[in-house]
Write a structure and sequence with these properties.
Length: about 280
């Protein structure tokens, strides 16, 4: 399946519209429509869903999402050079694609989407982690989205799914695994992209849980985890001494040895410590 619709191949599209990838925008285009269609399918059944896509570029994944049956796609693209190419796709799929020329970090998409909502994107490298953290830390839970299907540098993807004791384990793993089920569903080599980045990439699928996996106050958990991993090589009694005068007692209440280090502590124990800190404050 080299073509998923009767629109031009993506290499022709970027040549026609002069859309050379810009490093300053974190752009690496995925031009193989077989791969973009596969990523769209990894997002699950799209029928009856609005889909938010960040950084569509020339529209490869956009076309995959529409061809796979998304009820509607909202594509947010910062690069104005891509607008004409995306307009061609909107013409092909009348009423199903809305394109906004904006910075996703500055845009409130709530008025443009109707539930149920999925997010699928080949995220620009320079904003991917920040967007993920925002989607995982809304003021209320459950979030506005049902699932996230996102492309990251493989190193970031590994941090999202990391287990305690691994070098990749840290704040991102805890944030993701507290409120979602994350899974790496596709690996992609550098040569799959134009231009080829220096690192491999991976697609992560995250399904939102109806409730967080363990009880904890979100702000307290975030503070505890941030402090613990800011000095991850220190014993927790030292790394967390600014949290409470009796941090050793609170660690004990949570079943954590004060001499342990953050990278060895699981999500459930961090949530228990967060409850102890919250109750003691």
């Amino acid at each position: 399946m080299s073509q998923i619709d009767d629109l031009p191949p993506l290499r022709d599209v970027i040549d026609q519209h002069g859309i050379a990838a810009k490093k300053s925008l974190g752009q690496n285009f995925l031009l193989d429509l077989n791969l973009t269609a596969k990523i769209a399918r990894l997002a699950g059944n799209l029928s009856g869903h609005d889909v938010l896509e960040i950084g569509p570029g020339p529209g490869g994944l956009t076309r995959g999402l529409l061809a796979e049956g998304a009820r509607r796609v909202l594509a947010v693209e910062k690069d104005s050079r891509c607008m004409a190419a995306l307009a061609d796709i909107a013409t092909k799929y009348p009423g199903r694609l809305e394109v906004i020329n904006a910075d996703a970090l500055e845009l409130d998409v709530s008025n443009h989407l109707t539930a149920p909502i999925k997010i699928a994107a080949n995220l620009p490298y320079n904003v991917g982690t920040e967007l993920l953290v925002r989607w995982l830390t809304p003021p209320t839970w459950p979030p506005f989205w049902d699932s996230l299907t996102l492309m990251f540098q493989r190193e970031v993807a590994q941090r999202i799914v990391a287990e305690p004791g691994s070098k990749a384990y840290g704040r991102l793993a805890l944030l993701a695994q507290w409120r979602a089920d994350p899974e790496i569903v596709l690996d992609l080599p550098p040569e799959a992209f134009t231009p080829a980045p220096k690192v491999s990439s991976a697609v992560v699928h995250l399904t939102a849980l109806k409730q967080p996996r363990f009880e904890a106050d979100a702000a307290t958990l975030n503070r505890v985890v941030a402090m613990a991993f800011n000095q991850r090589r220190k014993m927790l009694r030292s790394a967390l001494k600014g949290l409470h005068p009796d941090i050793e007692g609170l660690l004990g209440d949570a079943g954590i040895a004060p001499t342990e280090r953050a990278e060895r502590i699981g999500l459930e124990a961090f949530c228990a410590l967060s409850r102890a800190v919250k109750n003691a404050s």
